[in-house]
Specification:
The chain has 2 domains: about 130 residues, 3-Layer(aba) Sandwich (Creatine Amidinohydrolase, Chain A, domain 1), CATH 3.40.350; about 260 residues, Alpha-Beta Complex (Creatine Amidinohydrolase), CATH 3.90.230.10. Helices cover about 35% and strands about 20% of the residues. The chain contains 10 helices and 19 strands. The chain is elongated. The relative contact order is 0.12.
Length: about 400
């Protein structure tokens, strides 16, 4: 079983989820996405979790039954030989087939959907992903404590960076040293994401003009990356003195993510970089101060955009030549959780939301400066979980 207290934690999550299922007239939901599965059961094994709107959930496991029985906080755990068994197992547990069945339609493959259609004849299939994502964006005290521990891990990594930087090293050399540092602290070496075709191992490291290279990244920065097959992040170019080195590496503690960015340099940076960076710090602090429970997420993005314009850094704010329409995003078991501090978002902040705020400016042909920290929403504003200083770190 999981550590003491996790049973009650997962039971509370299941109760909230079942209440939402009832409110939305769903008979139940099949959960398969790894983090949703872990969130509601305590295991990430290859399985389907049947959550009825009322009654006991059932974990149907393809592999490994042994690990699922050791890890999961679900009473009923049964083997699953294939898709054809799903409907029979659900029917046995419920007494009938569900009239309406929720599926994570934002992430399940089309092939899965067609299987569900085939075996749940007469059942209306509907999207349950907005319900579970809404539940997951409000963190419990347990979850906030794990994210705070991840933020502490990030602080310790950043403290080690000056000792990792060596004149003549490549971006990949630096990445290898930092990743080794993280692994020694217990980082699992992966950051999970929900977005389709979105991959993240640790994050991005870029230096100088490479930071301004456009890529397929869904965020404001990209980097050259190792090649056209993986066109973002660190490359084999050497890091040069007096250029900004952006380290955007997420930490992971027991599956929970803290996202953060700092700017380093070997030698003093040009004043234009420093002025731009200071402007991003002011935007971060203003958004965090205004970002209390009850405030609309879209209003916070509008505040950030207005401050960028007023300070003369509108061009390149949150990306160049195609800026992203957000300045922050939720973090938790995934790095791309709700809410999004973005254009037009009607989401009202609530206590317990954990967010990464990341105001950045891409300077074409020069590089990137800016900041990212992980915060938790309170009644008074946002509380920063990272402790490492926000300013540019000059390494001799």
């Amino acid at each position: 079983m999981l550590q003491q207290g996790m049973e009650k934690e997962i039971l509370r999550r299941l109760e909230r989820f079942q209440e939402e299922l009832r409110l939305h007239d769903m008979d139940g939901a099949l959960i398969v996405q790894k983090n949703d599965l872990y969130y509601l059961s305590g295991t990430d094994q290859d399985a389907h979790l049947w959550v009825p709107a009322a009654g006991e959930p059932m974990l149907m496991v393809r592999r490994s039954m042994d690990r699922a029985e050791k890890d999961a906080c679900i009473r009923t755990i049964v083997p699953l030989r294939g898709f054809s068994d799903l409907s029979e197992l659900v029917k046995e547990g419920m007494g009938r087939l569900p009239s309406t069945l929720g599926l994570e339609m934002d992430v399940i493959p089309a092939a899965f959907y067609f299987h569900y259609q085939r075996y749940f004849k007469g059942t209306t299939l509907t999207d349950v992903s907005p319900l579970i994502r809404s539940i997951r964006m409000i963190k419990s005290d347990y979850e906030v404590s794990r994210i705070a521990e991840a933020a502490e891990m990030a602080d310790r990594m950043f403290e080690a960076v000056p000792g990792c930087l060596v004149e003549g090293m490549t971006e990949m050399d630096l990445a290898a040293r930092i990743e080794a540092c993280y692994r020694q602290m217990g980082h699992p070496g992966v950051i999970r994401t929900r977005g389709f075709n979105m991959e993240c191992i640790y994050g991005q490291i870029m230096s100088g003009a490479n930071g301004a290279v456009a890529s397929n990244s869904p965020g404001p920065t990209g980097g050259k990356g190792p090649g056209a097959f993986d066109s973002q992040g660190a490359c084999r170019d050497r890091i040069r003195p007096h250029e900004p080195i952006i380290i955007d590496y997420a930490a992971n503690r027991e599956g929970y993510v803290a996202d953060q960015t700092r700017i380093f340099s070997m030698g003093v940076l040009d004043d234009s970089f420093l002025r731009t960076h200071d402007a991003m710090l002011r935007i971060q602090d203003a958004v965090a101060e205004e970002g209390r429970a009850g405030v609309r997420a879209g209003d916070l993005y509008a505040l950030a955009l207005r401050m960028a314009k007023e300070s003369g850094f509108q061009e390149g704010f949150m990306g160049y030549p195609d800026p992203v329409p957000f300045v922050g995003h939720g973090v938790g078991l995934d790095i791309d959780e709700w809410p999004v501090i973005g254009r037009g978002s009607e989401t009202l902040l609530k206590e317990g939301m954990t967010l990464a705020l990341e105001p950045k400016v891409v300077m074409p042909g020069k590089g990137v400066v800016g900041i990212e920290n992980t915060w938790v929403v309170t009644r008074e504003g946002m509380k920063k979980l990272n402790r490492f200083p926000d300013g540019v770190v000059v390494c001799s």
